[in-house]
Amino acid sequence: MINIAIDGPSGAGTSTIGKMIASKLGITYLDTGAMYRAVALYVVRRGVSPLDEKSVVPLLDEIEISYSPDKRILLNGEDVSSAIREHSVSKAASDVSKIPAVRLFLVAKQREIAAHNDVVLDGRDITSYVLPDAKFKFFLTADVEERARRRYQELKERGAQIDYDTVLADIKDRDFNDSHRAFAPLTKTDDSVLIDSTHMTADQVSEVITGYVLGNAQKR
Ligand code: DC
């Protein structure tokens, strides 16, 4: 199986790029952040704090994450693709992702999918923890202001009432959270190819990655 692992901080564009590459190469795309968001949405809807590990863990038995034929993410059968993008779910996802049991629950699912499919996976711990032996590993980043600007634009386009400074503060907060948690934090592994997209378009980044993958597909 060909597994392409992409990690990076919030707003680095890993999911936009992951989708583009998967479509160019004709393989599956798996947005692992969406899985953490779906768990966070369930927890919040149940009125539980995403930081309350003791209360969150038993809820995992009630959660079934699956995909519709057109690749929408389903939480217990409900299409939550839009609901998980709400601003409030972002912080909850970052919080819930600190809980080791939540990570193990989702990582098992991610590894299972990667074992049976040619797939592009993006997230925070794919290169370091989920698939350390993936054939292709990339770390995508950009300056924090640029990442905030992109996220702000995206939220605005979706009609969210939010200002740039809030988005920037939020991204900084999530950067800290995601890279300082005890279990499987965001980090660049030595064998990941670093791409700084601050001054690159999504098309350029996806060209670089697909070019690299196609150029090295026969090697190793
Ligand atoms: O990529 P995203 O913003 O949709 O991810 C939401 C949160 O999920 C992010 O703040 C951290 C967490 N996450 C994670 O811990 N590990 C992953 N592989 C993907 C996301």
Note down, in words, how this protein is organized.
With 220 residues, the protein is an alpha/beta fold. It has one domain (3-219): P-loop containing nucleotide triphosphate hydrolases (Rossmann fold, 3-Layer(aba) Sandwich). Helices cover 50% and strands 15% of the residues. It contains nine helices and eight strands. It has helices at 14-25, 32-45, 53-59, 87-96, 100-116, 126-130, 144-157, 164-180, 202-216, and strands at residues 3-7, 28-31, 65-67, 73-75, 78-79, 119-123, 136-141, 193-196. The strands form two sheets. The chain has a five-stranded parallel sheet, with helices on both faces. Strands 3-4-5 form a three-stranded antiparallel sheet, covered by helices on one side. Helix 2 (32-45) crosses helix 5 (100-116). The structure holds 2'-deoxycytidine-5'-monophosphate. 2'-deoxycytidine-5'-monophosphate is lined by residues 10, 32-33, 36-37, 93-94, 97, 123-126, 174, 178.
